[in-house]
Design goal:
Two copies of one chain form a homodimer.
Chain A (H helix, E strand, L loop, with lengths): L8 H19 L4 E2 L1 H8 L3 H9 L11 E2 H12 L5 E6 L3 H13 L3 E8 L8 E2 L2 E5 L3 H8 L3 E4 L3 H14 L3 E4 L12 E4 L2 H13 L9
Parallel strand pairs in A: 3-4, 3-7, 4-6, 7-8, 8-9
Antiparallel strand pairs in A: 1-2, 5-6
Helix pairs in contact in A: 1-4, 2-3, 6-7
The structure holds a DNA duplex (22 and 22 nucleotides).
DNA sequence: CACTGTGAACGCCTTCACAGCG
DNA sequence: CGCTGTGAAGGCGTTCACAGTG
């Protein structure tokens, strides 16, 4: 159910924050929540929340607030979390390995189904619930499995080449831990998870000590 | 050298992208670069780059472009990378451990100087170049070392409590891998590195296949 | 002549205030 | 009466076009 109108990117970026928060609120057994209270929890202005949600219809009840479970599910559907997203990991180094094992705990809607590495020493190793496969098998795997998402945790030098190959195989979304800007076609989405970027942004705010600012 | 005027957050968010790119360009031995060419490399519109840089003075030469090394250093200074940033890691689980070991390779301006964990089994273990210390030692360590940055890689349940403690000890910037929204005072900056957020945002764009969008 | 620096126009997100409903 | 949904106002970053300069 793609949406006709163009939703602001900033809205989309916030939806996962709401979603994450609603999960916790649900666990607390709370059934209704106002944009006010939710706002405090996620650190976002209530009117922003209402505007964000309004893009997708009337999700709340006037005079009452939002039903926690209903809203959570609605946002889930909007984000596309009503289906399962298989994804692969390229690069089974230290970071890649950790990501793979870490994933077990959290990913409810995202399932790591394959790990690939160039290094023959790593191939065959068991990492989390997968076994590392040689990159040569990657293309076929992506295509037969209809995989759309890839995590990229290879060294800078290889990242662009790998990204290019991923795209060629049909990958449409890349979460990249590589410390370079990837060049990809317009219909492919890249998110940058290189944490040095965030550290540097932190450094800026700590250096220029105004009373900024707030996360995400 | 804090800046008087309020620089747009979006500008600050892009500076590390420029910086990262300029490092690579420098390695290629290129000496001058135009906003045009840099724009292609970082995937950002040239006029945005010029506007961003203009906040900090006249960094380029009209008719010529930007001197790569000079610009790199200028951005480095702006971000506060002319000094070293020691930081600590809290949480020596799978992810924390990987981050610690990964850090060796990249961090030029950020140095991991301490790792803390509650679990006695993990305390004493060697991770990267540090040894895991008990959380009880954390407060003293932060204060005597005048540490300002912390990476947070503890389970969701503990994250808020730990964050609170970090702030109390004088931490001003947190890079959080915990899957919750941290509540911190206004003068503390939090960046969210929980990759489930990014995966969900990816899922949105893949579900609502317009010809969006672009990374970072 | 090439490319930066910049004021002005534009467009978009956020803020605000209140109308609409339960 | 409380809180959402929403049009209108405002603020802010981006885009544009060109003046400025080596």
């Amino acid at each position: 159910m793609p949406f006709r109108i163009k939703i602001p990117r900033s809205t989309i970026d916030r939806l996962p924050l709401y979603y994450r928060c609603l999960n916790i609120i649900e666990e607390h057994g709370i059934e209704e929540i106002s944009s006010q209270v939710l706002g405090v929890r996620v650190g976002i202005d209530p009117s922003v929340i209402r505007k964000d949600l309004a893009w997708f219809g009337e999700l709340g009840k006037r005079g009452v607030g939002y039903n926690v479970i209903y809203l959570k599910n609605a946002i889930g559907r909007i984000l596309g979390l009503d289906k399962d997203w298989p994804f692969i990991l390229v690069g089974a180094g230290k970071l890649g390995t950790a990501l793979a094992e870490h994933n077990q705990k959290y990913g409810r809607h995202f399932h790591l189904v394959g790990i690939f590495d160039r290094d023959p020493d790593k191939v065959g190793r068991r990492v989390g619930e997968c076994q590392v496969s040689p990159v040569e098998d990657m293309a076929a795997f992506i295509q037969t499995g209809d995989i759309k998402i890839a995590m990229l945790a290879v060294p800078a030098e290889e990242a662009q080449k790998v990204a290019h190959e991923l795209v060629k195989c049909g990958i449409k979304g890349i979460l990249s831990y590589a410390p370079i800007t990837l060049s990809v076609p317009e219909d492919v989405v890249v998110y940058n998870a290189d944490y040095n970027l965030d550290l540097q942004r932190l450094a800026y705010y700590l250096t220029n000590t105004s009373q900024f600012s707030w996360g995400e």
